[in-house]
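Sample 3 of the quickstart, ligand 1-O-phosphono-alpha-D-glucopyranose:
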Amino acid sequence: MTHFQPITVSTTPFEGQKPGTSGLRKQTEVFRQEHYAENFIQSVFDTIKDRKGATLVIGGDGRFHNQTVAQTAIRMAVANGFGRVVVGRNAWLSTPAASHLIRKHDAIGGLILSASHNPGGPDGDFGIKFNIANGGPAPEAVTQAIHARSETIAQYRLIDSPELDLTQLGSHDLNETMIDVVDPVADYADLMESLFDFPAIAALLADGFTIRMDAMHAITGPYAMEILERRLGAPAGSVINAEPLPDFGGGHPDPNLVHAEQLHDTMMSADGPDFGAASDGDGDRNLILGKGIYVSPSDSLAVLAANAHLVPAFLRGIAGVARSMPTSRAADRVAERLGVEAYETPTGWKFFGTLLDAGKVSICGEESAGTGADHVREKDGLWAILFWLNVIAARREPVAQIMADHWQRYGRDYYARHDYEALDTKTAQALMGDLKEGLADLAGTRAGELTVERADSFSYNDPVDGSVSENQGLRLFFTDGSRAVLRLSGTGTQGATLRVYLERYEPPSGQLDRDVGEVLVPLADAVDELAGIKSRTGRDAPDVVT
Ligand code: G1P
Ligand code: ZN
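Result:
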């Protein structure tokens, strides 16, 4: 054992160390201020009462500043009395892999160093997420306690030690703490192999089914290489942009049609691969494409739930389905048909944790390209991709056929999300505030071609722990069955982002192959009329449509 001197550093609080939808996320330059990361990490540690001797998992998505903060977090974990730190080699861990390691090692929690799908680098963003012992994101009670602590913090503790070599696997005995540098991929890959029919997927690939997985120079690269190319035998080159880079190669690691445009274009071309997929900065999101078709995340959740019986992990069926409120209601239709419960939770993965722990749901998803299940307590990009491949291997049908078949059975929820980014915060808050104030009087109001049936502000009562979360988005229901949701993003780092979620249901007997944008024009117009988006923000159109 090597002993290093513990030191206590005096500090003063930083304003705004308040975890948002998914951890504390700020511009990298904010995180690089002296004491900034330390203050937050100590605030997290101070809320973990039983940390003495406990295990902590640390890893991140490889972005700029990941290494520095990982080294600091290790020094602080030793000085704060943790018994063991499990850290991924190179300080790498995808978010779902971190969730798995927390569970596997009975850790008390984990620090995930990532700003998810936000760009990285000195001019990009950085973040720290704290996950609790069940492997999932800290619930609101915990994040509130962390924030409260950060407002009064006066000192933090760390050991005076040189940098640890995190490039090599192995163990280091520092003071009372064992630091284990582990392979970031192996355990996760084994977990995936235990959930899906790898021989069937390998046979599909061997029969010439072609795939393209864009890892966007983010953390999923090493995982996808191991699983898709090495274990399942996809030809070399099936995984592109596989090397994690500190600035994601200058790209924006968000797997949507805007940022994964190249993949989209490839998939729409006549000689493109049969299946396309992408994941985000920290590996928890997924984009699914077939030849000539994009699968919306809301539809993907519904299709996976409907086909779960084809996958070894769910041979005995699923307990229930949960979706975040702005996610389309497509999954509810499947749950109803299966005779299982469908839950509607606020935005953010943290709200699925109690339902998963209580065994009430098996599969969950969000419209923001997040899908996952009870194997970990995070959304899981590669898991969703493997689930799709397993379904295709079992059905031996192209993605487009699977979608057409799904809509014929359940009808189609035409769906899109319009984002207005970097708005003036006051303007955005006033827009939401005024709309909220007028909600009660909206019923019966005519807007463009539509009429409001009812409107409310979504509030969630967790059926497991009884906690209540209010103000989770404004909902407008129209008499033709359309629905619109408006909420402000909780993950942005510049100004405010207004998200407008639009959906319109078409029954099986209706027109199922229309252009999504076209179908939603009347609804988008009605929402604009009711909320005054264009007139208040001065924007003609959304910045991103997904
Ligand atoms: C966004 C998504 C949300 C997701 C979160 C973290 O949060 O909308 O579904 O859970 O990122 O990936 P938002 O910025 O909307 O608060
Ligand atoms: Zn992410």
